[in-house]
Fold each of these.
Amino acid sequence: MEGNNEAQLGRWVDGRLAVLRPAGDWQPDAVTGLARLRERSGGERTRGGSWTWAAAAATAVAFGLLAFPAPRAAAQRFCTACLMAAQNLAAGHTTGTVLKPAKERKPAPDFTLDDDSGRPIQLSGFKGKVVLLNFWATWCGGCKVEIPWLIEFQEQYGQRGFVVLGVSLDADGWKLVRPFISEKKINYRVMIGTDDIAARYGADQALPVSLLIDKSGRIAATHVGLPEKSAYRAEIEKLLGRKTRTAGAD
Amino acid sequence: MNASSEAVAGVEAIGARFDLETVFRAQYDRIARIIARVVHDRARAEELAVEVFLKLWRDRKAQDGNTEGWLYRVAVHAGLDELRRQTRRARYERLLGLVRTVPTPEEIHAANEEHERVRRVLSVMARCQSELLLLRSHGLTYYEVAATLDLNPASVGTLLIRAQQAFRKEYIKRYGR
């Protein structure tokens, strides 16, 4: 008898709680969620505040040691190392960069595609420049998040030998992509990709896929999904070569 | 290795680097849905789901143990906290006269909707009981509920019945049968 009452109670409550189920057609947007997660976790991870202070304190101690001749040489080396570390931290170079060492990089597969005005663009024609090759689509949430970054990078680093090339994988081609370019005010060159090219770059499995290609046409980094903006920036700057560093640092 | 497989190798390297993202991809859908059961606003539910994964990212201990159970528990907490916040805000606004005192027909209709009633009841019940009901109604077994809420599996049945009784009592008190 008691068991029956409990079963009835259970059914009654379950019946009430059943109305809370989200509609079957609702699909949480994992791409945007992941973009948010990366933005938030990346921001916290690259926050180098405490390390910057530690490096500054260590530098101060080392400068103090300079007054004494014996440890002077060691202190000088220590100062230089600390200053470089602090510089890197301030520039956000702490994490997220995945540049391959120069000798491990492989050549980017070459291709030729037309841009929106019908002009052919050959990837190998950009040797001598740092290229960010971005595979994207108008329906891809992560791509929409990073497009403003790419616009910013093109504007900021364009004069220093940096080029963004967008390869759209929209099945409807220019009909969709051309208005999108105008709407987003995309300032870099965009092409419509083919399945073959997408497969050669691993962009047939996920989007966005971005590759950083060094000045000699070799793949220096591959990002599948949405990377941290600070990681992109650090990699671009490293590939372009910073004025304060010696040549060939990357 | 040619350049194409190089790009694909990059995919694998990235995957290995982001453990959090692997967990996120596997669990985001379920976590967002658990929260959306409690929080009416789906966009807000998705925001809260991201917060849950950020908490996981910050909590080393949670990453080592029963991550899935931890995520469920924190998701239900997050949903109930939001629900209570909304209920509190609505009450204060009414008290302070910040909003209209006469509700619109749409508001009356929404308040009478069954899901709103259920949410209100859950928001005033003891938190542990609401959690238990939500996890169970989400399809978790007794054993999973026990692992998630750190309970003795043998006592889940009893606690669940008490929670159901409390729910029915509060519901009938407010809305009748």
Amino acid sequence: MLRLPVELLEEIYRHVEVTYPEEGCGFLVGQWEDEEDVMVLQVLPVSNTRVDSRHNRYLISPEVFLQVNREVEKQSLEIVGFYHSHPDAPAKPSDFDRDYAWFGYVYMIVPAHRGKSGMPQVWKLTEDRSSFLPESLILLERRDMVWQR
Amino acid sequence: MATVKIPAPLRRFTHHQNDIPIDGVNVREVLKNLRQQFPVLEKHLFTEDQQLRNFVTLFLNNEDIRSLQGLDTPVKEGDEISIVPAIAGGMRKNEVILTPEEILRYSRHLIMPEVGMEGQKKLKSARILIVGMGGLGCPVSTYLTMAGVGTLGILDFDRVELSNLQRQPLYVTDDVGKLKVEVAKKRLNAMNPHVRIQVHPVQLTSENAMEILQDYDLVVDGTDNFPTRYLVNDACVLLKKPYVYGSLFRFEGQVTVFGGEGGPCYRCLYPEPPPPDLVPSCAEGGVLGVLPGFVGAWQALEAMKLILNEGESLRGRFILIDAIQGRAREFKIHPNPQCPACGNHPTIHRLIDYDEFCGAHRAEQAIQLDKDWEITPKELKALLGSKKDVVILDVREPVEYQICHLPGSRLIPLGELPYRLGELDTSEHIVIHCHTGSRSARAVQFLRQMGFTRVKNLKGGIDAWAEQVAPSMPRY
């Protein structure tokens, strides 16, 4: 289960609508509450300029990952997963998504149809890497966040 | 002893340890020892054939080992090896899928190893801009649409004219007067509904070129003038995009690929544009109807090869097709280190005023005549009705004269005028005309300089004459 404050989802929406028709992507930062459940506390959009090369398949380069990881660990948080948009395509992982996915991270895919983002779907890779399984997403209202803190 | 830093998702396999001390003289050995200690890591880091998985990146301290000696990079006491996820996915280039309908449609591509499913997906991911939807733009867009290029931008602000239909097969007689890009989009989408056609019904300018071009992977040239060609070239150099060049003149066609990585650009070949008027456009010089199809199809082919990254590109090779001789010749072209656009010390860092660079303004100024030196078609008609002693001098080419001419006119092509002055008399009233008025303006200027004082230019040429006073006369 992935729990996400609604304003963070709004932030993700804004980001992928700006990047449309290109993909938008970023980090989901938070804490694992147990083996299965994760709480997202920050989203960090990644600048698209880093991925504009036609032959460069990486959305998030290892250098960026290292840098973000350092900053996140300082706050005693961790990178729990990633979001990316599928412009004019459904929120299902592609074969390519699966080839590059890590077991243990959550992957949120946000559809962006004609520049308007739609309800995301969260996925987790199975341990044998053979497939993605859908994960439930719980949106938290702002007051829940206050309560949470 | 080095320290291996484990990323969060893998810590469940390392008993939640972040930093694991491991022995080894190089990265390969450290990883081997790590896997011995935690065998379950194996399948997350390595493929079945023992290759590091493509989403796993290794850093020795702060350096990617690929920039060092790869897995053989030596490891010292106290070094830190980080396992870093390279996160990818969702990218358009790789995201595309082919529907069963598309698989059938492209089956003749798919069964060739040079294309195959992967190549067809590359085509579907590609974004190509065609500048100019005339003789070249029509075949280029037609073939690229049928081949399944995902996004095709078509740029042209012209409307379809009857004289286009001799060589521009996307348009039919009923389309005359309609915006070219609108008609083309409809036809192209009827050919292949899977292609996203983006229309740009604008003139490409220094102000909008970068913004328009940056959305595309490569640009195909279908322009008919030098300012636009230099503009497209410079924008492609600045944006590091390949530029598939094609051009036509009468029976001659040219094709090559400029730009991209290390390739020569148009300015390497032609640092300066030719003087205005030296090289006529299709409208002035004519073009054989089939030739644009030939050159445009070759351009489409080169664009496809660039997208597929297959075969030998025409980059660095310039093809000159002589259709009347039935010959094609190939010239080697090299990047010019002194090139102002792509050389070692480029001086062009942003787009300039290309009309000025190509002297288009100067050409217009040169043929600006005093009002007194001009006569309108209606005035000429009145003059012909009242006086008999007016000489009408036609300075067009003989082939144009055969299409239509004014009754009783004398034909002396502009180029022959200096040698045939003897055929004219300075005492005569002379009205000079050409097709649209620019060649005759130069003739008027020349004759005035030679002492003829009673010469006038027919404003708008025989075309305006046909339009305003002789509706039965054919126009071309």
